[in-house]
Amino acid sequence: MKLAAAELRTVALPLVTPFRTSLGTQTVRNALLVRVLGADGEEGWGECVAEDEPTYCSEYLEGAAEVIRRFLLPALFAVPNLDPAGVAPALAHLRGHPMAKAAVEMAVLDAVLRARGTSLAVHLGGVRPSVRVGVSVGIAGSLDELLDTVDRHISAGYARIKLKIEPGWDLEPVRLVRETFGTALMLTVDANTAYSPADARHLAGLDAYGLALLEQPYDPDDLHGHAELAAKMDTPICLDESITSARDAAAAIRARACSIINIKPGRVGGYLEARRIHDVAQANGVPVWCGGMLETGLGRAANLALAALPGFTLPGDISATARYYDSDVTAAFELDGDSIGVPDGQGIGVAPDRVALDRLTVGSLRRVGRPSR
Ligand code: OSB
Ligand code: MG
Predict the structure, then answer these.
(1) Does residue 95 fall inside a structural domain?
(2) Which of 317, 321, 328 to mutate to test the pocket of ligand 1 (most atoms within 8 A of CB)?
């Protein structure tokens, strides 16, 4: 397609409950949405998963909006025949900003696949009509509150519970959840880099609780530290923040720094790089699962398509809409047993509801036109 125009808007979605991690507490998801329009009437939507502050990674929402408007879209306007696979190469001379790049690649994928009449799931190589999903449970105000929350999610049908942990909120909540809900519960923990190698012995205490994985205990750069911890612990180490490309994934696997990978398209620069990480992991017998960034229905639709690939053998952080928001920009996703159906419509398979979109839009709506010459 020939890119003719684009639009950036920020929507504000209040979370149904505050989400606390070792990185901070969120009460509202401000999400940056990208709409692209092709010269032949194509239309597509992308979502940038950068958060308000650069705490999970170095990107943040307003910075990503500026990078998209000022650098990424102008580079794409210059491409005469824009194909989804051509987006990353056309942006490769611009360093970093994977979440910003992933958002425009998603919008182009949506627009081009819609025009071709193909779904993202089919385009990526999905093999499942629905995917098993879990829920990521924030750090609670008390142990009673945690048990209530976990109980509610298990009753709803979720296939796996992930507990956010940090120093001071780790062994005890994990022990209590395991004791209360039994050994059949698939349970994992995510530290979001809150520990250091000095905590290795303490973390090894988690081995007593039969966790399916321990996600990102150390700094993103510390592959060696993760490899040492993996050698000490029975619990499989899973990397999230550390893995930003297929090359990183190969290096982490070779270094034995992880035996499981959390794949988030935003973190790695897009759905096509996400698929390459899946391929590298699969070739090495490393299971992967789809992470989440509290996406709106647009990003979760695309994540469901990715999670339909054969190597996504663990439940993803792709929960039903009601777990995040009372109102979203798309129709709500609902649990069916322990799974959510993979959208099979063209492109990402969902589109924003214009009324909800306008109601949730905050701040500026910026239109970026193709420079005429
Ligand atoms: O580390 O997986 C993470 C949300 C924001 C930033 C980082 C993470 C998360 C989650 C939420 O765990 C998962 C979801 O979207 O359900
Ligand atoms: Mg994580």
Answers:
(1) yes
(2) 317
**Residue 357 CA, distance from chain mean position:** 21
Task: Examine the domain organization and report whether 134 and 252 are in the same domain.
Answer: yes
Give the domain range for residue 331.
122-341
- pLDDT digits over 297-352, tens only? 999 999 999 999 999 999 999 999 999 999 999 999 999 999 999 999 999 999 99
Residue owning the nearest CA to atom 12 of ligand 1: 136
- Confidence class of residue 369 from pLDDT cuts 50, 70 and 90? confident
Let me know whether 147 and 27 are in one domain: no
Percent of the chain scoring above 90 in pLDDT: 97
**CATH code where residue 160 lies:** 3.20.20.120
Q: Indicate if 107 and 155 belong to the same structural domain.
A: no
The answer to whether residue 67 sits within a structural domain is yes
Residue 232 a catalytic site member: no
- In whole angstroms, what is the distance from residue 83 CA to residue 298 CA? 20
Average pLDDT in the chain: 97
**Counting ligands in written order, which one lies closest to the CA of residue 136?**
1
Q: Is residue 162 annotated as part of the catalytic site, yes or no? A: no
pLDDT tens column, 79-128: 999 999 999 999 999 999 999 999 999 999 999 999 999 999 999 999 99
Q: Which amino acids bring their CB within 6 angstroms of ligand 1?
A: 56, 136, 190, 192, 240, 291-294, 317, 319
Helices (H), the chain: 61-67, 73-77, 84-91, 98-116, 120-124, 143-156, 171-181, 200-204, 223-232, 246-254, 265-268, 271-283, 297-307, 321-324, 354-360
pTM for this model (two decimals)? 0.97
What span, in angstroms and rounded, lies between the C-alpha atoms of 199 and 368? 49
The Å distance, Cα 291 to ligand 1 centre, comes to: 7
Residues 299 and 215 grouped into a single domain:
yes
Considering the domain architecture, whether residues 333 and 300 belong to the same structural domain is answered as yes
Q: Are residues 161 and 67 in the same domain?
A: no
Span from the CA of 215 to the centroid of ligand 1 (angstroms): 11
